[in-house]
Amino acid sequence: MKFKMPAINLLVIIIISFFLILTFISCSPRITDKIGVTEEESEGISEEEVEELEKEAVEVVDYESAQVGAEIKGYIPSFLCTDSDNYIKIEITNTSDFTWRSSGENMVRIGYHYWGQDVDYSEYDNPTRTSLPNNLKPGESATIEVLIIGITNKGIYVLQIDPVLEGHFWFSSKGIPMLEGRTYFGSCTD
Fold first, then answer.
1. What are the two backbone dihedrals, phi and then psi, of residue 70, each rounded to the nearest 5 degrees?
2. Which end of the chain has fewer surrounding CB within 10 Å, N or C?
3. Structural domain harbouring 162
4. Which residues are within 8 A (CB) of 28 and not within 5 positions of it... i.e. 6 or more apart?
């Protein structure tokens, strides 16, 4: 016995299929969504730049087994302020085998740790972070002014500048040397 489908049923199935396909297409993320670029921003991007952004967007890194590295140049000043923002200028080079993202998920930012030498005041996982100016591919460098704030008790401290892969680890936990020095925090308005 052969089953015959009335023409109206076939037409209904075709129409429903068409709407399902349209819904899927309209709900699928556009490439500009995947690469973190708004539609207005994408109008001025060349085809080569879109390809590069697509490559970065799909880069999947196993951070636990990746080669992690950083080279930090600079120095810790001998005096910093307890009552205003402090900026320490560093040059940092990505010696990892993956691109450091400057925004979004899995971004690398510059943080710091400190502990008092003559005062009982310290913080390891300080929430203050300084963002990278842009993504840094392996071998690339950037000059950054690291914001140091929140130390309000006068005294001598050890200050350590340490990159952090947000949501994963501090670079120092992988054996990467930090920029470290002793400094005195005092009032700058007295």
1. -155, 145
2. N
3. 70-186
4. none
The 10s digit of each residue's pLDDT in 73-96 is 999 999 999 999 999 999 999 999
Q: Could you give the number of structural domains in the chain?
A: 2
Q: What is the dihedral of CA 93, 99, 101, 105, to 10 degrees?
A: -140
Helix (H, G, I), strand (E, B) or coil at 111: strand
Q: In sequence order, what are the beta bridge partners of 142?
A: 92
Do 96 and 150 reside in the same domain of the chain?
yes
| Residue 76, both tokens | 């810790």
pLDDT bin (cut points 50, 70, 90) of residue 160 is: very high
Same domain, 96 and 129: yes
Task: Judge if 85 and 33 occupy the same domain.
Answer: no
**pTM for the model:** 0.69
Phi then psi dihedrals of residue 16, to 5 deg: -65, -40
Task: Give yes or no for a contact between 84 and 189, defined as CB atoms under 8 angstroms apart.
Answer: yes
